[in-house]
UniProtKB/TrEMBL annotation:
Disease resistance R13L4/SHOC-2-like LRR domain span: 29-128
PROSITE patterns named among the record's database cross-references: LRR
This protein's name: LRC18 protein
Origin: domain of life: Eukaryota
Coiled-coil spans in chain: none
Keyword Ribonucleoprotein: no
Gene3D superfamilies named among the record's database cross-references: Ribonuclease Inhibitor
Pfam families registered for this protein in UniProt: LRR_14
InterPro entries listed in its UniProt record: Leu-rich_rpt, Leu-rich_rpt_typical-subtyp, LRR_dom_sf, LRR_domain-containing, LRR_R13L4/SHOC2-like
Gene Ontology CC annotations of this record: cytoplasm
Region (Disordered): 220-256
Organism for this UniProt entry: Poecile atricapillus
Biased composition (Polar residues): 237-247
SUPFAM superfamilies noted in UniProt: L domain-like
Length: 256
C-alpha cells in the first residue's frame, strides 16, 4: 500500500501545513486544510496554533482532540462534512470564536458538550445535517448568536430559550419532524372557510358586520350570474345543418 494512503488517511506534515496558511483581506491568517483526505487531527498543526481561522472541512475526521484548546486565537472554525460524532469539552475554551460550522457530521445530542455554551462570543453556529434529536436548553446562553442552523436533524421541539435569543436573526429548522411545521403543511379548504363565515344569525351581528357579510354575499351572487350556465350554448340561427335541410325538403325530393 503506498505511503500515506492507509486507513489513517492522508498524512499532513508541518511543511504542507505552513504552505496552507493564507492571509485574508482582513489581515487574519487562515489555515486551509479542507478536502485533503485527513482522517486524524494532525498534531503538527499545533505549531501553527496562533492562526485566527482553521478550515478542516470535507475530510474524514471522527474526533477533535482536546488539544484544540491550543488555538486560543481562533475566531473562525469550519469542520463541516466530516464524520465527527462528538465534540471535546475543550471546545469551550475558544473564547474568541465567533463562527463554528459543524454541518454534515454525525453529531448526536450526547455529542454536544455542556462546555459549548461557554462560547459567549459565538455569532454563527451551524448544526444542520447531523443526528440531533434534542437541543440543549443551555444553548440559550449564547446571547450573541445571530444565526443558528438546525436543519435536517430529528428535532421535535426547539427550546424556548433558543427561540428567544435576543440577537437571533436567522433560525433554520427546515426538514425536522416539528409539530408546528406539520400543521402548517395541512391544505386549507377554502370552500369550508367561506361557508363558515355565515353560520350565524343576522340578529347576532352588529350593524357593520352585517353590512360586510351582505356585501360579500352580493359579490358572490354577481359572480354566479356572470358564470355561463349549462344551457348557455352558442346559437347560430342563420345557419342550417345538413339534417335540417333534408328534413325541410324531403317531400319535394320524394315527388321528384
Amino acid at each position: 500500500m503506498p505511503k500515506g494512503k492507509g486507513p489513517q488517511g492522508k498524512r499532513i506534515t508541518l511543511k504542507v501545513a505552513k504552505n496552507a496558511v493564507r492571509v485574508l483581506f482582513n489581515g487574519r491568517r487562515r489555515l486551509e486544510l479542507g478536502k485533503m483526505g485527513i482522517a486524524t487531527f494532525p498534531k503538527c498543526i499545533l505549531e501553527l496554533a496562533d492562526v485566527e481561522e482553521l478550515d478542516l472541512s470535507r475530510n474524514l475526521l471522527r474526533k477533535i482532540p482536546n488539544t484544540i484548546e491550543k488555538f486560543q486565537n481562533l475566531m473562525w472554525l469550519d469542520l463541516h462534512s466530516n464524520q465527527i460524532d462528538e465534540l471535546p469539552a475543550a471546545i469551550g475554551t475558544l473564547q474568541n470564536l465567533t463562527f463554528l460550522n459543524l454541518c454534515n457530521n454525525k453529531l448526536t445530542t450526547k455529542g454536544l458538550p455542556q462546555e459549548l455554551t461557554l462560547l459567549r462570543n459565538l455569532r454563527t453556529l451551524n448544526l444542520g445535517l447531523n443526528c440531533l434529536e434534542t437541543i440543549p436548553t443551555t444553548l440559550g446562553s449564547l446571547r450573541e448568536l445571530i444565526e443558528l442552523g438546525l436543519f435536517d436533524n430529528s428535532l421535535t421541539i426547539i427550546p424556548k430559550s433558543v427561540k428567544k435569543l435576543p440577537k437571533l436573526e436567522r433560525l433554520n429548522v427546515k426538514r425536522n419532524p416539528l409539530p408546528e411545521f406539520a400543521e402548517e403543511e395541512k391544505p386549507i379548504d377554502t370552500v369550508k372557510r367561506i361557508e363558515s363565515l355565515y353560520l350565524i344569525e343576522k340578529k347576532d351581528l352588529c350593524g357593520s358586520c352585517l353590512e360586510t357579510c351582505q356585501g360579500e354575499r352580493d359579490e358572490l351572487h354577481k359572480l354566479e350570474d356572470m358564470a355561463p350556465g349549462p344551457s348557455d350554448k352558442p346559437s347560430f340561427p342563420s345557419l342550417s345543418t345538413p339534417n335540417s335541410t333534408a328534413r325541410d325538403n324531403q317531400e319535394e325530393w320524394r315527388i321528384k
